[in-house]
Structures are given as C-alpha cells and as structure tokens.
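Service request form, structural biology core

Requester: graduate student, group of Dr. S.
Request type: structure prediction, single chain
Budget code: on file
Notes: please return the result as structure tokens.

Sequence provided:
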Amino acid sequence: MADRRVAITGLGVVTPAGVGIEDTWNLIVEGRKAIRQFDVFDPGKFDCRIGGQIDDFSARKFVPKNYRKAVKVMARDIELAVAGADLAFIDAGITTKGIGEQPDIDSKRLGCNIGAGLICTDLNELGQAVNTALVDGKFSLKAWGEHGITNLTPLWLLKYLPNMLSCHVTIIHGAEGPSNCITCGDASGHLAAGESALYILRGAADVVVCGAAESKLNPMGLLRQGLLGRLCTSRNDAPAEAVRPFDTSHDGTAIGEGGGLIILEELGRAQQRNARVYAELVGFGAACDPEAINVERPTAGNLGLAIKNAIASAGLTPADIDGIITYGTGVPGEDLAEVAEWKSALGDAVATIPAASITGALGTMFAGSGGVQLAVAAKALHEQIMPPTVNFTAAAEGCEMNFSSQARPTEMKTIVAGVFTVGGQSGACVLKKAEV
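Core staff response, request fulfilled:
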C-alpha cells in the first residue's frame, strides 16, 4: 500500500453556470456571473431576493431508465449529487452499472462518500398535509396521528435524509465498497474527499466517487441565512455585483445551489487505462473551532490548522504551495477571519501566492461549495490557470492576499483548497500537478 497514490480522473459539476465542468469553468474564467433575481419561489417578502438558481434541471436525465421513478423521492440536493456522480464517471471514462451495460470496474472496489447539508422539506407538500390536521384553526397532534400524517407519501422522509445522496449514487452505480455520508456543512466536500483518499491509500477501494451537493435556495434556507445576517440585501437591483469576496465593498453573500463530485482513482489503475489525470490529491487536513457557536464572532473554523495539517500530510512546506483556492463568502467578518487563517498557515507568502475565490460568480452553495471548489482547483491545476475572483477590485483592510479580477496563466505544481462553515468545521486539500 505504501506506493499507492490518489489521482483525480473525473469532474462532475452542476452549478448555476450550467451542467458540466466546462460550463462552470468557462463562466468563472471569463469573469461572468450567475447570481440573479431568482424565481424558484416568490422571494418578495425577503430582504434578499437574489441567488444562484439552476434552471431546467432534473436528475431524470442522469439515471438509468429503470431508476427514474426513484427521482420522485429525491430532494433537490439528492438530484444534484446523482447528476454530479453521473457526469463525473463519464468524464473519467469509467463505465459503471449506472452508465452502461458492460461495467469496466469491479463493483467491490468502488466506493462512495458524498457530503450533504441540512435538506429542507418541501413546504408546500408538508403544509398541505399539516392543514388536514387542524382543529378549530389550530394544529392538533392527535388529528395528525389519526389521519393527517397519512396525507404524506409513505416514502416522504426518504427525500430529506442527508445520507440519501450517497445511498442513491451507490445503488445506481453498483458500488459495493466503502460508502459514507458526511454532514459538516460547507466543509463536507473536502472532508469526504479526504476520507475517500484514505480508502484508496489503505487499499479498501480503487475508485471512489466523492464530493458534496446542497441547495438552500428555498424559503427556510433564505430565512435562516437572513436571520444570521449573512446575506447581501443592498444589491437586489444589481445581483451580478452582489457577492464580493474580500473586496472593500463586500457586505454579504447570496445563496447558490450546486454540487461537485469528483472521481478519485488509484494512480496505477488510472495510468494502466491511459486515463486523463487532472491532478493528484496528496494532502488532507481537518480542524474545528469549538467557540464558533457564537455567531456574533465570525470565525473560519480554525482553517489555518486544517491547511497546516494538509500541507504537512503531503510532505510539503508552505514554500511549496503555488496556488490557493479560498472560500470567500463575501460576508465581511468571515472574509477577515478566513484571511487571518491563511496567513497563520502560510505566513507572508499569502501576499505573493496567486489566490482565487469562486463565490462571487456562483454564490455560496454551502456543502456544494466544497465539492465545486475541489473540482475547480483540479481543473485550474490541469489548465495551469488561476481563475479570477469575480467582483474583486481592491482588498478590504485585513483581507490582503494575491487576488485578481482576471484569469491568470500560472505555473503551478501544487494548489491548496480550503473551506469552512459558520458552525466551526474546516477542511483543506492539497492537489499536485499530474506528472505525465
């Protein structure tokens, strides 16, 4: 096992920019933006009415015909993960049970680990059922137990369990190896990728589909983030300019929805089949801030420790890092806390290492942000281009890093990608350029 290495051979991305890594990559590199007035529901009563919405999307296009009925019991988060997995396997050139009739992978050596967030129930569906249990205008628990609950489909709960992202992907693609789901908010994608890499390094699997997906573009998601004071409410009339990571005029984020699934593969296997290798995953770190429960004190989840651990596990030093993919929510206190963590991990080098955030273009996709961020990091390393930080003009005080509003051709052997949650978790992964 000592000589086993982990390659990234497939990228499956669904974001407000479109379906597939190329749509998302091109939008970001060209400096375009996907934040707009959304219409998935009427946001008229909310202070923030903008977000990153995915249009005309259904997982039905990404599952075998004999599985399409199951889409009815998939919440949007699950659909995003199912689509991302399908795209990732196809991009990797791997045929599974869910891709074709002649799988070219041993199902017992195929694993799955997909991060998820808090899946919001369909309020219309739940509300209609609750209304049948009203007595004299008030909700009656007795009436609910006697007949109200029968107005929900028997499989209703299965739409909202976070482990169902991994469950459906595992069933569709016939993965019999390790299968897991991590629910640590925005950090879930990095944590899932790190654990999946360990599956491969210790010989438990040869291929793992991993990453994360989430959609908070719903009334409860918008309400919760609004109550936390994280949303931009000053640019409803200029949505494309709203999310401004690390910028002097940053004043909040906008909700996006999306998913990023990647294929990790034992490098020797990938080389044997002449697969395209975007990058190697060579380092992983995780950390948390136990004091993050105080939402009035923005924190980046002890991200600096996660970054240090990731770099150390890769056998590298800060001097070996050539590129940085930050989170950059655009929430002033969070931006400031995040930059402080990058500085604590990398020291003065943060002033010169090319860095970028993709949040200005796509919005905050929560668990999905980590998965998409990793896919973009792998693509950036493969293309040798550092993406722009959309809507960045000048650094806010305390947020000085090497950001640019333009895409930059950059010679990079390594990239470190890091993300955090307001709940206090953080994760970081180090990617290395594939050696041809």
